[in-house]
C-alpha cells in the first residue's frame, strides 16, 4: 500500500507539469496555403544544390494534391502533382535502381479513396506505378482497405527500397503491410512481402517513420504508444518496444527521425492536441524534452540535419499546421545538440 500511494503522489506533479505550455518557437518560413487540408510533409535534398531542395506536402481532399514548395515556402507548380483522390501521407528515398545504369530518387504517397500506393520519381515527377499499386486487397471492410500512413525503407547493404503502409482501421495484429519495389523491363512493381504490427484499437495508426541505418520502424498507435519493430522483413515480427504514451495529452501523431553523423539523434513526435512535440533519443528511445513550435493540431512532420541554405544552416524541420500551411524551422531552433 505504501508503494502504491507513493506512485500516485509522484504522478501528480508530472501530470501538472505536462499541462504547462512551453515558450513558443516561431517558424522561419510559413508556406503558401494549399487548397484544402495539409497533412504530411517529406523533404527532398537536392544533391547538387541543397538550396534548391524541395518540401513536398499532402493536401488531403477528394480533389487533392501533392504540393511542392521551395525553401521560401512558395509553391513550385511544375513539381506539384494534382488530381489525387485524398492523398494522406508521403515519404521519399534516394536511389531506386531501375536497371544496371539508372537510379532515381522516389516519392511515395497513399491515395486513400482509390486504395492505392503511388510512386513518382523526383525531381522530374514522373509516375513509376502505372497508375497506382492496390494495397490491402484481401480485405472486405472498407476502412481496412483504405491506406493512410506510409514510410519508405532502404535496406543496407542491398539497397532495396520498401514501402510500409498503414490504413484507416484494421485488425489488432498485422495492421501494417510491407511492399518491395522491384524494377524490370516492364516497369516498377510493388510486391507484398510482409504483414506485421499490433494495433490497440483505441484510435488510429497514421504516422510511420523508418530509421534506415538502425533498421527500425516506428509508428504512432495514437491512443496507446509509439511502437517499434525491425524494418527488414528478415527481422521477424516481434515488437521491440511500446513507449512514450504517458507523455502525450491525447493523440500521438507525426514522427520525424533526426540523424546525427555519429549514429545518435532524436525521434520527434507530435503531441497533437497539446500543440507540442515530444522528443526521444534515437538509440534508447528515452524521453529528452518537449518543445512548443507554435503549431496547431500537427499531423505530419519531417526533418533533415544537413545545411541547406543561410536560413536552414543546421538543417530543416517541417511541421504541418491546421490552417493549410506547413511551418519551416532551422533545425538548430529545436536546441537538441
From TrEMBL:
<protein>
    <submittedName>
        <fullName>Phytase</fullName>
    </submittedName>
</protein>
<dbReference type="Pfam" id="PF02333">
    <property type="entry name" value="Phytase"/>
</dbReference>
<dbReference type="InterPro" id="IPR003431">
    <property type="entry name" value="B-propeller_Phytase"/>
</dbReference>
<dbReference type="InterPro" id="IPR011042">
    <property type="entry name" value="6-blade_b-propeller_TolB-like"/>
</dbReference>
<feature type="domain" description="BPP">
    <location>
        <begin position="15"/>
        <end position="337"/>
    </location>
</feature>
Amino acid at each position: 500500500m505504501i508503494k502504491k500511494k507513493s506512485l500516485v503522489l509522484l504522478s501528480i506533479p508530472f501530470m501538472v507539469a505536462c499541462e504547462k505550455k512551453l515558450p513558443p518557437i516561431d517558424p522561419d518560413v510559413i508556406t503558401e496555403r494549399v487548397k484544402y487540408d495539409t497533412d504530411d510533409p517529406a523533404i527532398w535534398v537536392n544533391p547538387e544544390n541543397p538550396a534548391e531542395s524541395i518540401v513536398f506536402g499532402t493536401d488531403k481532399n477528394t480533389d487533392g494534391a501533392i504540393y511542392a514548395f521551395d525553401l521560401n515556402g512558395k509553391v513550385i507548380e511544375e513539381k506539384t502533382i494534382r488530381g489525387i483522390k485524398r492523398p494522406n501521407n508521403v515519404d521519399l528515398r534516394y536511389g531506386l535502381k531501375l536497371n544496371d545504369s539508372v537510379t532515381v530518387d522516389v516519392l511515395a504517397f497513399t491515395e486513400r479513396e482509390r486504395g492505392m500506393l503511388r510512386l513518382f520519381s523526383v525531381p522530374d515527377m514522373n509516375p513509376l506505378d502505372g497508375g497506382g499499386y492496390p494495397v490491402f486487397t484481401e480485405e472486405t471492410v472498407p476502412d481496412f482497405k483504405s491506406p493512410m500512413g506510409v514510410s519508405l525503407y532502404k535496406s543496407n547493404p542491398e539497397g532495396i527500397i520498401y514501402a510500409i503502409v498503414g490504413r484507416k482501421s484494421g485488425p489488432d495484429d498485422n495492421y501494417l503491410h510491407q511492399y518491395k519495389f522491384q524494377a524490370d523491363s516492364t516497369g516498377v512493381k510493388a510486391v507484398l512481402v510482409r504483414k506485421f504490427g499490433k494495433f490497440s484499437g483505441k484510435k488510429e495508426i497514421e504516422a510511420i517513420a523508418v530509421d534506415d541505418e538502425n533498421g527500425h520502424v516506428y509508428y504512432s498507435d495514437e491512443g496507446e504508444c509509439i511502437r517499434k519493430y525491425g524494418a527488414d522483413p528478415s527481422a521477424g515480427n516481434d515488437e521491440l518496444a511500446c513507449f512514450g504514451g504517458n507523455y502525450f495529452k491525447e493523440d500521438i501523431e507525426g514522427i520525424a527521425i533526426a540523424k546525427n553523423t555519429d549514429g545518435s539523434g532524436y525521434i520527434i513526435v507530435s503531441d497533437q492536441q497539446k500543440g507540442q512535440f515530444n522528443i526521444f533519443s534515437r538509440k534508447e528511445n528515452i524521453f529528452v524534452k518537449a518543445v512548443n513550435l507554435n503549431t496547431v493540431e500537427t499531423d505530419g512532420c519531417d526533418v533533415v540535419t544537413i545545411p541547406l541554405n543561410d536560413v536552414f544552416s543546421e538543417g530543416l524541420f517541417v511541421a504541418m499546421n491546421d490552417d493549410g500551411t506547413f511551418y519551416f524551422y532551422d533545425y538548430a531552433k529545436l536546441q537538441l545538440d
